[in-house]
Amino acid sequence: MFATSIPGPGEISLAHNGVLFLDELPEFKRSALEVLRQPLEDGKVTISRSAGKITLPCSVMLVAAMNPCPCGYTGDSSRECRCSVPQIQRYRSKISGPLLDRIDLHIEAPSLRIEELRNSEPGESSAVMRARCEAARSVQNERFQATELASDRCNARMSHSQIRQHCAINKEQGDLLQQAMEQLSLSARAYDRILKVARTIADLAGAEHIQTAHLLEAIQYRSLDRNLFY
């Protein structure tokens, strides 16, 4: 009996229309991470083997987590980082700029202090958050109702022409975004993603148009660019 290398779905295709969570992102081989770039952009992946070629859908929400350095304590106010500068640079260099460009939100999550853990003041409930998200998705579904695929009826899947149509900003906002782009040396892809995120923030706020506060918040979510991460 002979074994055959028949192409089949991998993790990114198995997560189609769902969430693909990659923990400890820099621990993956850089070559494995780099092949994610085009599938994240196109929502499909093509696998070629000796037995044939197959194209599979892979429209996923990528969520990744990582430490700021190998020991995990860079920037921590309560613990001292034990890593050298070259160690931190090698660790962070495993994540390329083009891959980061394809991630809409960069969120820093500093460690919580004991008094914060003991705080019993209630925050926004999951039920309220879910209602806000469902309302925003309903707006987006109506906005893109002409789109053939239901999975594409969201801001994240907007084409460049749709961004120009639905993410219009005024001159003052345009100047603000241009200044941020120049200071952070952001790419054209990051420019589009900032506008998509700003549009989503506006949807969550129930706003018809992108406001300056929404744009500023979206820019703040490029924290890895701000820190010259790569």
TrEMBL record:
Keywords: ATP-binding, Nucleotide-binding. Transmembrane segments: none annotated. Pfam families: Mg_chelatase, Mg_chelatase_C. Residues 123-222 form the Mg chelatase-related protein C-terminal domain. Residues 5-116 form the Magnesium chelatase ChlI-like catalytic domain. The keyword Nucleotide-binding applies. It comes from the Bacteria. GO terms for molecular function: ATP binding. This is ATP-binding protein. It comes from Thalassobacterium maritimum.
